[in-house]
């Protein structure tokens, strides 16, 4: 099989190459450059490209660096900055997979190959004549939540060779194959930022605007912040408040006010109801299928996540009168952040069905205020 392999310079994509090479496939390696290289400090990616070159030489495989940095900034980062300015919480990694890796890359290069492979920890399985996005056995590394916005056509052209492996097994495979990056640390955060942290990046792009930090229970001003776009619902770190813990529980975008509550057990940082204006299903709309897990009131029994975490939550999902969706969790959910995505799974946590953007209330108003 002729396969385009997206490699990053990390151990995961290197082991992906090794596994597919040993299986006898015709491999062509690609590195997607997304940094701007505009002097603002974004990652130049030269170290990653050097590592990718070593992997290509080890297996005597063709390697090409392709540039999608303009598309990344136009479609992914503009989305992220726009979402932050609206007072919402973006998910750039999810959009990068949907728009860049399995969008523009597929349209320009990947479509020429039988499949496109990446080092994601996820699986594509076939069942009832259809492809499904399935979770990996390593719950800590499972990345289906980052893939939950891809379309069925995209899923049909992807393979994830690491889908049956844990991180420890990948490291061991890298050592056995004598890969040059066998001990290289995993990348953290958003790639293009390089050594710049996320707050510094936001300050460069959006500036600062001082506003009050208000204790929501008392209405008392207890501090100042530098702009609502630096904070998300449920955030604890980086608030600069003494005597913590303090959690962000609400934002007033119009007046640039951050509301906080004190203590780990404050009920104000928890909720059980999550609204979504729409849901993007990957393979099928389960509400239109007889085989899915509905109760007598047509609530869909599901598991879900609202952030990248090994833990799943359980709940019931139903359609609303205005064609939105309402999820009622069986347990309290910490830090429900509008703008983030709620990832929907089957009750056994084995299949990722799709995802929907969280809105501010059950009426599905996306006003950020």
How would you sum up this structure in a few lines?
The protein has 369 residues and is an alpha+beta fold. The chain is built from eight helices and 18 strands.
Give the end-to-end Cα distance, rounded to a whole number of Å: 52 Å
| Alpha plus pi helix count | 8
Query: Which radius of gyration do the C-alpha atoms yield?
Result: 22 Å
Q: How many β strands by DSSP?
A: 18
- Principal-axis shape: globular
CATH architectural designation of the largest domain: 3-Layer(aba) Sandwich
Helix content: 10-25%
Q: What percent strand?
A: 25-35%
CATH classification class of the largest domain: Alpha Beta
Average pLDDT, all residues? 89
Write up this protein.
This protein has about 375 residues and is an alpha+beta fold. The protein has three domains: about 1-120 and about 165-195, HUPs (Rossmann fold, 3-Layer(aba) Sandwich), CATH 3.40.50.620; about 210-265, SH3 type barrels (Roll), CATH 2.30.30; about 270-360, Translation factors (Elongation Factor Tu (Ef-tu), domain 3), CATH 2.40.30.10. The protein has helices at about 10-20, 45-60, 70-85, 90-110, 145, 150-155, 165-175, 200-205, and strands at about 1-5, 25-35, 65, 115, 125, 130-135, 160, 210-215, 220-225, 245-250, 255-260, 270-275, 280, 300-305, 315-320, 325-335, 340-345, 350-360. A six-stranded antiparallel beta barrel has the order 12-16-15-14-17-18. Strands 3-2-1-4-7 form a five-stranded parallel sheet, sandwiched between helices. It has a four-stranded mixed sheet with strand order 9-8-11-10, with no helix packed on it. A hairpin with a 7-residue loop joins strand 14 (about 300-305) and strand 15 (about 315-320). It starts with a strand and ends in a 10-residue tail after the last strand. Mean pLDDT is about 90; it is low at about 360-369.
